[in-house]
Amino acid sequence: MTGGQSAAVWASGLRKRYRRQVAVADVSLTVARGEVLALLGPNGAGKTTVIKMLLGLVRPDAGEVMLLGRPGRDPRARARVGYLPELFRYQPWLTAAEVLALHVRLAGLPVPAADRHDCLALVGLADRAGDRVGGFSKGMQQRLGLAVALVACPDLVILDEPTSALDPLGRADVRDLVLTLKERGVAVLLNSHLIGEVERVCDRVVILDRGRVAAAGTLGELLGQSELRLRLEDVGPLAHDRLAAAGQVSHEGDRYAVVLPAEPKPETVPDLVRDLVELGVRVHAVEPGRITLEERLLSILRTGKEDGDHR
Ligand SMILES: Nc1ncnc2c1ncn2[C@@H]1O[C@H](COP(=O)(O)OP(=O)(O)OP(=O)(O)O)[C@@H](O)[C@H]1O
Questions:
Q1: How high is the pLDDT of residue 78?
Q2: Domain end point (choices 187, 221, 255)
Q3: What ipTM was estimated for this complex?
Q4: Winning range, highest mean pLDDT, from 58-67, 96-105, 283-292
Q5: Pair (204, 81) in one structural domain
Q6: Is the confidence at residue 5, as pLDDT, over 80?
Q7: DSSP H or E run through 303
Q8: Distance between CA 21 and CA 308 in Å, rounded?
Q9: Which atom of ligand 1 is nearest to the CA of 208?
Q10: Do residues 49 and 16 make contact, with C-beta atoms less than 8 angstroms apart?
Q11: C-beta 205 within 6 A of ligand 1
Q12: Atom 13 in ligand 1: which residue has the minimum CA distance?
C-alpha cells in the first residue's frame, strides 16, 4: 500500500452523475493525517457530493476511497470518522446530552458520560446539556452537530459548512476548535464558503469547479508571492537600493510596495525596517499584504469560465 493510501483520506477518480446532471466529473484528493484541508468552490461545484461519496452516503459511479488506510466502506474506518452534515437536524424531544448519548450508542462506542459532557463544553453547550434540542437556535443545533462529530475522538473529522448558522463569535469558536483538532493530530476536511476563516486554519486547499479539481495546493503555493506595503519619507538612493535588495520595488509618492518571496524569512521585514531607519528613512507604516485566498479563488474560477464550459 502506498503512503497516499494510508492517508486520512485518499480518493481517486470519483465520479457521480444524477440523470443528465454531472455532479462530480473527476475528483481525486488526499488529506494527510493531521492535516486540515479545505474544499472550496461555487454553489453546485460538487463539494457535498464528494464528501458524501467519501463517507459512503452516495455511491460513486466510479472511483475509489480509502479512509485512514482502509477501504472507505470498512466499518472499522468509518468508526474513526466524525461527520457534521450540511443539513443537520436532531430529535427535538431529546436533550443535548441525550442526543450525544444516542449517537454514541448507535456507533457502539464506549464514551463515558463525563467525556460526553466535556465534548458539549468544547462546543459551548455545557450549560444547555439538559435542555431539549427543540428549543435550540439553529446555531446551537449546529454546535450540537459538532459535538456529535467529535464525541468519539475521531482521527478524521469531515465538516460540511460547519459555521453556516453561527454568529461571528461562534465562527471564531469553530476556528479555534479546528486548530485544537489539528494540534491533537486529527485530520480535518472542511467545506466552507467563509474563505477568510478557511485561510486562517487550513494547511491545504482543493478548489472544485463544475465537478473537477480546478486548483490544489498549500496556501503558499496557491497565493504565491507576498507583498510588503510601506509608507516612507526621505528615501535616498541607498535606501532605494536596500528596498530593491528585498524584492521588486514600485512606488507612488510615499507609498512603496516590495514583492517578497512566497514564504519570506521571519527576519526579512524587521531587518529591512532597521536598515531603512539607519539610512535616514522615516517609516510611517509597514503592512504585509498578500493576494487573498478570495481573490485567488475568484481569479481561478473566472479563468475556468473563460476556458469555456465543455459539459
Ligand atoms: N440528490 C441529487 N439529485 C440530483 N442532483 C443532485 C443531487 N445532489 C446533488 N445534485 C447536483 O449535483 C451538483 C453538485 O451539488 P453539490 O451539492 O455537491 O454541490 P456543492 O458544491 O456542495 O454546492 P453548495 O456550495 O451549493 O452546497 C448540483 O448541480 C446539484 O444540483
A1: 87
A2: 221
A3: 0.97
A4: 58-67
A5: yes
A6: no
A7: helix 293-306
A8: 17
A9: 21
A10: yes
A11: no
A12: 23
**This prediction's pTM:** 0.80
Rounded to an integer, what distance in angstroms lies between the CA atom of residue 260 and that of residue 243? 10
Q: How far is the C-alpha of 209 from the C-alpha of 191, rounded, in Å?
A: 14
* Nearest-angstrom CA–CA distance, 5 and 56: 17
Q: Is the pLDDT of residue 1 over 50?
A: no
Q: How far is Cα 190 from Cα 38, in angstroms, rounded to an integer?
A: 5
Question: Are 201 and 230 found together in one domain?
Answer: no
**Domain span including residue 263:** 225-290
pLDDT at 292: 75
Cα 286 from chain centroid (whole Å): 29
Same domain, 203 and 279: no
Which pLDDT does position 79 carry in this prediction?
Answer: 86
- Residue to probe by mutation, ligand 1, list 19, 20, 43, most atoms within 8 Å of CB: 43
Pocket test for ligand 1, best of 40, 47, 158, 190 (most atoms within 8 A of CB): 47
Check whether residue 97 and residue 244 sit in a common domain.
Answer: no
What residue type is assigned to position 254 of the chain? D
Find the helix packing angle between 138-150 and 113-122, rounded to 10°. Answer: 130
Cβ 44 under 6 angstroms from ligand 1: yes
Predicted local distance difference test score (pLDDT) of residue 35: 94
Report the chain's mean pLDDT, rounded to a whole number: 88
Three cell numbers written together for 4: 497516499
Let me know: does 188 contact 203? Beta carbons within 8 Å: no
Helix, coil or strand: residue 131: coil
Tell me the CA–centroid distance for residue 10 and ligand 1, in Å.
21
Q: What is the dihedral of CA 80, 84, 88, 93, to 10 degrees?
A: 50
Percent of the chain with pLDDT over 70: 94
Find out whether 299 and 255 touch, Cβ atoms under 8 Å.
no
Q: Find out whether 94 and 136 touch, Cβ atoms under 8 Å.
A: no
Which residue has the CA at smallest separation from atom 30 of ligand 1?
Answer: 44
Statement to judge: residues 215 and 286 lie in one domain:
no
198 pLDDT exceeds 70?
yes
